[in-house]
Structure formats: C-alpha cells, structure tokens
Design brief:
mainly alpha, about 80% helix, rod-shaped
Length: about 90
Amino acid sequence: MSSVITPEQLSERVCRKLNLPAKDNAEGIAEILRAALNDSREAAIAATKAGCLEIAEEEAERSRSVGASAAQQTALNIATRIRKRHVEVR
C-alpha cells in the first residue's frame, strides 16, 4: 500500500518539478491543494449519503412489493432520517 502524501509534500514536489523556489511558492500551492482535497472529501461524503438514502428507498419499495409492511416502514423511517440529517434537497 502506498504511503499518504500530504498537500505540503506534494507542493514541494511541484516546486521542484517546475524549478520554483519552494520557500516562496510551496505554501500557496499547498493551500490550493488543501482546498481541492477538502472539496473532494465533501463530494465523496455527499455521494455516500445519497447512496445510503437510495438503498433505504429501494429497500422500502422492495418490501412494499412483497407486502412486508413492518420492514417497509422501517426502511422508510431510515430513508426519512437520512434525508433529514444528511442529504441536501435540491
């Protein structure tokens, strides 16, 4: 498994590759990389939450189709809780 590369390490590598003085440029590049990393993390979290909601809704529909009202209600409750707490309605 590869080791984790921090934005600071990556910015220093970028500076070396572009022949830029790290002293003057690494901090700004690291900040840009941190912002991009944060945006990617937030997008991944939102996608995971939406995926969980979709699974709960599918389970509710599956339960409804076989007449399992208790399981259906449980799945609908889970979907409602996920939507209220974690998923932005667009």
